[in-house]
Specification:
The chain contains 5 helices and no strands. By secondary structure, it is mostly helical. The protein has a domain of 130 residues. The longest helix is centred in the middle third of the chain and has 54 residues.
Length: 194
Amino acid sequence: MSIENEVPVTTTETSHFDAAEALIDDIRALKQRVPNFVVPESKNARRQIAAAASVPSEFVDLAALAVRNHEVLTRGGNFGLAQIRDRRNYAEAYGPVADELEAMALFVRHSVRMAQNEAGSNALTTYALAKRLAKRPESAALAPHVEDMRIALGARGKGKPKKSGPKPVPPATSPAPTQLPPVTASSPAAPPKQ
């Protein structure tokens, strides 16, 4: 007997909204658990910090060592060796958390798309059946529903409408008359053969 991860069928529409709202609250609460959580100040924040944020770890270690060994490099506001290592460890530790959250977002989006697919597929099957049944006299009452569904569906799957009328024919071009080059003192005495 296999155990599948099935979502129970809900009896009310609001139960999905309530569950989703509770989950959003839980996700937002995660911000409180992430130390040094920073919200970008602008759309360009990621681009603005990219250069310094992408230096290799070895470079950061060497800079920290230089600060420790040479007092002249110690300046106001400069991180000491402990702070540099702490920032690097933070980045290494929480990078996978961000990866996991991004993967989770992808999976949730896929789950949403699958739910839309299942609802849409069922509706298309119903539409196809209703179209066939509406043609029968005993099911003619379905015709207005079929028309409403057709309008709501739009022009899906019919392709681009073809332009009416014949395509214009480009004008025929006749070859331009050939002119002989003028005879000059440097040209051969005999005219060119035609």
